[in-house]
């Protein structure tokens, strides 16, 4: 958790200087609350066929969830790449 606070402090300092720069694409200005228009992704991921393929059925995708964000803070700086192969080997479907 300490690494998160250090990185977040540095990132916040940079973004304070960069003003409304989009941190997903620094060539663009930040537009909207998340600095990016996620509407196409939401439309795609909320299609019944996609939800069925991912095995989430009645769960709708949301671009931002404060509950999920808070739960994942402890994994913010952790390398989770090593666990992807194990998930796939166990037959768990995922979208990367």
From TrEMBL:
Xref: InterPro entries: AB_hydrolase_fold, Peptidase_S10
BP terms from Gene Ontology: proteolysis
Pfam families membership: Peptidase_S10
GO molecular function, one term: serine-type carboxypeptidase activity
UniProt keywords, alphabetically: Carboxypeptidase, Hydrolase, Protease
Ion transport is among the record's keywords: no
Family stated for the protein in its record: Belongs to the peptidase S10 family.
Protein name: Serine carboxypeptidase-like 49
Organism: Theobroma cacao (Cacao)
Native organism taxonomy: Eukaryota, Viridiplantae, Streptophyta, Embryophyta, Tracheophyta
